[in-house]
Design a protein that fits this description.
Helix content is about 45%, strand content about 20%. The protein is of the alpha+beta class. β5 and β6 form a beta hairpin. Strands 1-2-3 form a three-stranded mixed β-sheet, sandwiched between helices. It is built from four helices and six strands; from the N terminus they run αββαβαβαββ.
Amino acid sequence: MDEGEIAADYIEELLDICDFDGDIDIEVRGGRSYISVDASGEGSLRALSKPDTVTALQELTRIAVQTKTGEFSRLILDIGGSRQTREAELGAMVDRAVERLEEGATAASLPPMSSYERKLVHDIVAARGFVSESEGEGRDRHTVIKRG
């Protein structure tokens, strides 16, 4: 079994335990597995789609995959469109930071976030014509945006 299949089986078992219905899709992009869980019923995944919950479930799923494969997992889990919602939130954060730069600030720092979210921020910042870099260590690692 590959990483995506192991992760999907793990998530399917979790959904069964919680008595939630969900459709699981597996996609591989750039060597990374993306697992998406969606439901046709409104609200059935709402409890699981909160950002902190998705992050925790992603880590548990990565551990389950690593236990079976013996290899580190970099899979990304999306529940009920939570990743798309988070990308929009990150875009809004970047927009506010850019406004501060346009008002004269030399740099604008964003709050600490995961490496995946920092990567998304770096891409958003570059698309807006600015530059960014990650600073700090561990849980304090965050993105700083500056003019190009």
